[in-house]
Amino acid sequence: MVKLKNVGLGKDVVVDENPVSRWLFTNTTSAWIWLILRLYLGYSWLTAGINKVTSDVWTGSNAGTAIKGFMEGALGKVEAGDVASWYAWFLENIVIPNAVPFSYMVAWGEILVGLGLIVGILTGISAFFGALMNMSFLLAGTVSTNPVMFMIAMLLIMAWKVAGWYGLDRWVLPRLGTPWSIKDKV
Q1: CA 127 from centre of chain
Q2: Among 55, 102, 119, 181, which residue carries the largest CB count within 10 Å?
Q3: Residue 58, burial from CB neighbour count under 10 angstroms (0-12, 13-18, 19+)
Q4: Predicted confidence band at 4 (pLDDT cuts at 50, 70, 90)?
Q5: How many CA atoms lie within 13 A of 37 on its CB side?
Q6: Is residue 71 within 8 Å of residue 91, measured between CB atoms?
Q7: Is residue 111 helix, strand or coil?
Q8: Are 138 and 149 in contact (CB under 8 A)?
Q9: Model pLDDT, residue 181
Q10: Residue-range domain boundaries for the chain
Q11: Number of Cβ within a 10 Å radius of residue 89
Q12: Whole-number Cα distances in Å, 30 to 26, 107, 126, 165
C-alpha cells in the first residue's frame, strides 16, 4: 500500500511491483522465457544481417542501392498516409543522400544486434537498437514481422536485468556496476 501523506520535494515514493511483473522482470527463474525470446529475435536479426552483408546492393560494389530503393518506395507511400511527412523529409534529405553509410549501418547493425541477443551481452541495449531499427522500418511503411519483433524487443528491454542471465550479461553486468543480489523470499 502506498501512502502519499506528507510527501514533499526530495522524498521518494516507492510503488511496489505486482508479483507477476516482479517475477518476470527481476527474478532469474524467469530467465528461460527471455532466453527463448532472445534466441528467436537474435537469430532473426543475425540472418537478416548476414543476408545484407553478403549482398552486393547492401555492402558490396553497389552498396546503397537496396536501401535507396527501399526509401524511395517509402516516399511513394506518403500520399496514402502510410508514411508520415516528417519521416519522409528525413528519408529524402538525410538517408537517401547518404545511402551507402546507412546501408552499412543497417547491415552490420542487424548482425551486431543479433549477436548481442544470441550471446546475451548488453541484452537491453541490443534489444533497444533492434527496436530502433524495427521502428524505422515501420515508419517507412513496412509491416512484415516488424511489429512482433518490436514487441519482443520492448519486453527484453523491460527485462534487461534478467534477460541475459543465461548469457554473458550474468558476468558482464556485475563488472559494469549492475550487480545482482540474492534476497530472501518475503
Answers
A1: 3
A2: 102
A3: buried
A4: low
A5: 26
A6: yes
A7: helix
A8: no
A9: 67
A10: 39-173
A11: 12
A12: 8, 32, 19, 9
